[in-house]
Design a protein that fits this description.
alpha/beta; Rossmann fold; 6-stranded mixed β-sheet; 3 helices; binds 1-O-pyrophosphono-5-O-phosphono-alpha-D-ribofuranose
Length: about 180
């Protein structure tokens, strides 16, 4: 085994992943709890779960199946990291949802809040569409976001300040398919 690699998994193709931070069972249990929290928060439902691609694709799919209220799903696509390991801060909107946002309870579903730049930009943009309510749900929150101007209403896990991959999160488009969340550091 390569000395810098501690996680052994054929999905990794020998690339270095140091440790599993949240295993699949832990994630599933917490996503179930979040589904209950969100169901209680919107007793009448009619929520638009707006998944921020690409990172939220697995989380969103698992989460919406745990929400027991009427719900719609759409996506928003933004990109800031490219192949780098830190956010460029230049958040580009690549796809705008086609669903009417005005008057809806919008729940923006994020995989991870890191610097908070993506959330800041998207919340400004979505708030201007006059939704009935606008809240954030993030599986992971690093709490390192000194620039974050909005509260994250639903948080799955407080995350260590390390570069995390798996369960939708990538490095240079790799590792998104890992069923667990692991650290590259
Ligand atoms: C990542 C991640 C979040 C965002 C968080 O997305 O999925 O959306 O960065 O970073 P921030 O809080 O520092 O802004 P990325 O731009 O890498 O695109 P991806 O979702 O397609 O991986």
């Amino acid at each position: 085994m390569n000395a810098s690699t501690s996680v052994v998994d054929p999905r990794l193709d020998g690339r270095a992943v140091k440790r599993i931070v949240f295993d699949a069972q832990t994630i599933a249990r917490r996503v179930g709890e979040m589904g209950n929290e969100i169901s209680r928060a919107y007793p009448d439902g009619h929520v638009l779960a707006l998944g921020l691609l690409k990172g939220s694709f697995i989380f969103l799919g698992d989460l919406v199946r745990q929400i027991t209220r009427p719900l719609q799903v759409d996506f928003i696509v933004a990109s800031s990291y490219g192949d780098a390991m830190t956010s460029s801060g230049d958040v580009r909107l690549v796809y705008d949802p086609e669903t009417e946002l005005e008057g809806k309870h919008i729940l923006l579903v994020e995989d991870i809040v890191d610097s908070g730049k993506t959330i800041n930009r998207l919340m400004d943009l979505l708030g201007a569409r006059r939704p009935r309510s606008l809240d954030i749900c993030a599986l992971l929150h690093k709490h390192a976001a000194t620039e974050l101007r909005f509260p994250v209403k639903f948080v799955g896990f407080d995350a260590p300040n390390e570069f995390l991959v798996g369960y939708g999160l990538d490095h240079a488009e790799n590792f998104r398919h890992l069923p667990y969340i692991a650290s590259l550091q």
